[in-house]
User: What shape does this take?
Amino acid sequence: DGGITQSPKYLFRKEGQNVTLSCEQNLNHDAMYWYRQDPGQGLRLIYYSQIVNDFQKGDIAEGYSVSREKKESFPLTVTSAQKNPTAFYLCASSGTSKFTEAFFGQGTRLTVV
Amino acid sequence: KQEVTQIPAALSVPEGENLVLNCSFTDSAIYNLQWFRQDPGKGLTSLLLIQSSQREQTSGRLNASLDKSSGRSTLYIAASQPGDSATYLCAVSGGYQKVTFGTGTKLQVIP
Assistant: This one.
């Protein structure tokens, strides 16, 4: 089945640690995105990538980093510089014709302990 | 800056009722609008995508309309079922980095 797979589903981070969230898609989509979701707020864009080896900052990129070495994969690293990382993280992908229909993964809930 | 508003924030209806969810946006220069469903603790499931040149899209019991000039979209759910209980989000797109999501309407359908 085609889709987007995020792992892990739950992640716990200690203060000062970097953690990496995985996102893999087999939809042959060129564009991939990372969003953060907090209670009572709309989704906010962290980073997006339109092609391999290229990515752009979104609205809230500080404290995060990404890579796009393969078309299928777009991992997100939450660094120790991110002051409030506890949130629900969603990965999405779409075609590159403007913003065509987007498909989302099941999310990763990150909690700082 | 694009702003997307969904009213009401929460809605509770008896099973079988037809209902309408509302989405309004401030900038009419959009490429498309997408409606999503989100179950608790889960990702977003795409329901309907309406291109800016279209007026409506239908999928089963769902019908979404778009009035770009007035900055409004509605999602109509016919004959609601308990399985429709979820949060419904709309998102408007003005480009890759210009997708703006609403905060959603939490729907509860009571058996």
Q: What stands out?
A: The two ends of chain B are 41 Å apart (CA to CA). Chain B has no helices and eleven strands. Chain B has a mean pLDDT of 94.
